[in-house]
Specification:
By secondary structure, the chain is an alpha/beta fold. It has 12 helices and 10 strands. A 5-stranded mixed beta sheet has the order 3-2-1-4-5, sandwiched between helices. The structure holds 5'-O-[(R)-(carboxyoxy)(hydroxy)phosphoryl]adenosine and zinc ion. 5'-O-[(R)-(carboxyoxy)(hydroxy)phosphoryl]adenosine binds next to helix 5 and helix 6.
Length: about 350
Amino acid sequence: MLALGIETSCDESAVAIVDGNKNVLSHKLISQFREHQPYGGIVPEIAARAHLEHIDRLILEALDDAKIDLKQIDIFAASAGPGLIGGLIVGVMTAKALASMFRKPFIAVNHLEAHALTVRFTNEIEFPFLLLLVSGGHCQLLIVEGVGRYKCIGNSLDDAAGECFDKVAKMLGLEMPGGPAIQEFAKFGDPKRFSLPKPLKKKDGCDFSFSGLKTAVRNKVDYISYRGASKQDLRDLAASAQEAIINHLIDRTKNGLEFIKSKNLKSLVLSGGVASNELLRSNFNQILLSRGIDFYVPPVELCTDNGIMVAWAGLERYKLGFSDPLSFKPKPRWPLDKIINNK
Ligand code: KG4
Ligand code: ZN
């Protein structure tokens, strides 16, 4: 069984061909950060146009690398939401056109579900599991009961974790994407130099909040700039901000660990772009190891947006009998707990 997956929901155009035995036959990806860099953030119209410009070539190159013909593809999957509508339309229309031409199933993949299921591509892991999904647009703690079956137990009250990384990076004058830039810049910084607030500290529940943290960093930037900030000042602030964001993610996830026992969950999984953060991965690993909880996180290149996760999620859905009509409309907003049967 061969799936072709298309990812165009944000600023990465990607195409992958994956088989049912978890082999990647090919994967082609173009990041658009250079196009958006001059504007300091992702510009939806530029993103949509760039996807349109790249997608056909990426598909041809993916087929070439895999040495297969379009006729051999069994299912065509595309990220159909949530995301920027212009990009979603490009990916969904392309997958639908191919599905219709070759009379093969079209699978509308929820982008968050693709992040959630990636770990089943890279590891032998069974449902149910606890998932911390941390990306540029989402920060959620979920119980994953099965394909299409999610229960959200924690959500961000304001910004997503990745958004916080991106905004802090911008304040510090770092390039996009912000998360990896902070990670690199913070390597020679002192995370204890600046004291930052601990959001929702001692509050029950698993919700997250990053806006207070973001404002506190803004104030520190203003304060050190007033005196003429040195590069070391900025490195120390980057390291302090990174640690504060990670500690908040850990703090709130700890509140969710009670579900591991009460719901008989098998493990904890980390996914989404922010899950590629080295410090977050190693801190999670240590904490969960010490508590005897199995911890899984996909390799870094499969945490950030990619085509493999879309092709794989398409296969997972198709194996359960799900496919979507060509009338399916992309959904800019599409919460994970509303995806049973894609209704
Ligand atoms: O999952 P993703 O590629 O796209 C969305 O679905 O949003 O996540 C992108 C987010 C961006 O905010 C980016 O800054 C963040 O993931 N990110 C990181 C790292 N790599 C990517 N954040 C922290 N540390 C990283 N190493
Ligand atoms: Zn994503």
